[in-house]
Design brief:
GTP-binding; Serine Threonine Protein Phosphatase 5, Tetratricopeptide repeat; three-stranded antiparallel beta sheet; GDP-dissociation inhibitor activity; alpha+beta
Length: 455
């Protein structure tokens, strides 16, 4: 099958890596029953990461013709239409509903906000492109997405899934308790597990044959350590316990959390230990509460502070009204740590802000979206807000819940990330002004009242 570059603007680029199949059409019927069949519409839709029904509907709206996407995975459009004309319409569809408006990359996802606005989020540069409202296909996308969701939002469905998981875990715990009670009734004690020849006795007691015993985990064979007797020989019953030591907690954190968040929790735990030996309790998770101090302490006389240089560079570029994609390139080229880069961006955007903090965040949300392409970056942004709040004015601090709400509604921050950041910070013993002001908004998210109010 012949391939071509995605997008008319890239058709002559021999090294362009995004490809799609060339359109194959066929005219069927005669008279009033004539129609055009696009035989490989499913393959084209797969390459563009868009439903084939969207492309078929777009052709129908633009041509003013009845259309249908049938069970044979082909697109049918009433009337005789040549391939060149349909390929031109497909290029228009790609430009409007596939390519990023910032960098032109076709690697985008369709997002639908709570206010029923359709936008494209680019996986390459993070730019969020607003799709023109009022178009027939935009209305079709909104209607189709609403029917697929069945009246429930993505986050509401996620909460339902979490509830099912919790109920499943509770059922597992009840089953474990039931098994434990059954074991007690049959007289299986820890002394029998450790006694010589106790393995065979226990197998017989619980109704296991030697063959069944061979498939048990190694820790449960040959009188393993599970439920081992105390050194003084007390005949204690078998007990299942969770290791609450610091090392075990760190290990579980590393296994369950993402890399960035796991490092955050580990560093917070280490910091809580140091507080017992030191009176310096104002140090944040990533070094000093003021990121400038991290570099002022290391620099030598006559050398510039790289953090200050990055802040000034970002401010200078913002003064030249650069795009979000261009700003992303500026911060990506920095050699500073990821957290310091995010701190510098936040400081450059909102330095000395007071009343009107929320309005400034809304005005600059495209820059923040470009700097937050994934969940790990969302955590960095929340930490930057926390660091910034430690030195901003009281008026700005009061607007923290509205800032979080604005970033949440703009799909820059996800509900799960905000809740997780708050819970980790509180669990580590932190009680900053930012956390205190963020508490009402986080509680609203946790109680699921916020989304229902928005709907």
């Amino acid at each position: 099958m012949a391939l071509q570059n995605i997008g008319a603007s890239n058709k002559d680029d021999a090294f362009y890596r995004y490809k799609m199949p060339s359109m194959i059409t066929k005219t069927e019927g005669r008279g009033n029953g004539i129609r055009t069949k696009i035989e490989n519409i499913a393959d084209i839709a797969k390459a563009l990461d868009r439903p084939a029904s969207y492309i078929t509907k777009y052709f129908g709206y633009e041509l003013g013709a009845d259309n249908k996407f049938d069970e044979q995975r082909t697109s049918l459009i009433n009337g005789a239409h040549d391939t060149v004309k349909l390929a031109g319409l497909l290029d228009n569809f790609i430009k409007k509903y596939v390519q990023c408006y910032g960098c032109g990359n076709p690697e985008t996802k369709i997002l639908i906000s709570k206010t029923q606005m359709v936008s494209l989020k680019c996986a390459a540069c993070g730019f969020v492109s607003g799709v023109k409202t009022g178009c027939k296909l935009t209305k079709f996308i909104l209607k189709n997405a609403s029917e697929q969701k069945g009246g429930k939002g993505k986050k509401a469905m996620q909460r339902a899934d979490n509830k099912c998981l919790k109920e499943g875990k509770a059922a597992d715990e009840n089953q474990k308790k039931l098994n434990k009670d059954t074991t007690k009734k049959k007289g299986v004690s820890s002394k029998e597990f450790t006694a010589k020849g106790g393995t065979a006795k226990n197998n017989a007691a619980v109704g296991l044959s030697d063959e069944d015993h061979s498939i048990l985990p190694s820790c449960c064979r040959d009188g393993g350590n599970v439920g081992a007797a105390d050194e003084d020989g007390d005949d204690d019953e078998v007990q299942w316990q969770t290791d609450t030591s610091l090392e075990a907690m760190k290990q579980r954190m590393q296994e369950q959390l993402s890399t960035v968040t796991a490092e955050l929790v580990t560093l917070s735990t280490d910091e809580s230990e140091k507080k017992k030996e030191s009176s310096h309790n104002d140090i944040a998770v990533y070094g000093s509460a003021n990121p400038r101090d991290n570099y002022d302490n290391k620099q030598t006389i006559g050398k510039a502070n790289p953090y200050n240089e990055l802040v000034e560079e970002i401010k200078a570029n913002l003064g030249n009204a650069i795009t979000a994609a261009q700003l992303k390139k500026v911060i990506s080229s920095s050699t500073l740590a990821s957290q310091d880069v995010m701190n510098a961006l936040f400081e450059a955007l909102f330095d000395r802000v007071g009343k009107g903090f929320k309005e400034e965040v809304v005005k600059n949300k495209e820059y923040l979206a470009a700097a937050v392409p994934d969940e790990g970056s969302q955590t960095l942004l929340l930490l930057a807000i926390e660091v910034f709040g430690s030195k901003c004015s009281a008026l700005a601090l009061k607007e923290i819940p509205f800032v979080l709400r604005a970033l949440y509604c703009a799909d820059v921050l996800e509900e799960e990330t905000i809740i997780h950041w708050y819970n980790v910070a509180v669990a580590s013993g932190k009680n900053s002004k930012v956390l205190q002001n963020a508490k009402p908004f986080v509680e609203c998210l946790q109680s699921a009242n916020y989304e229902s109010e928005e709907e």
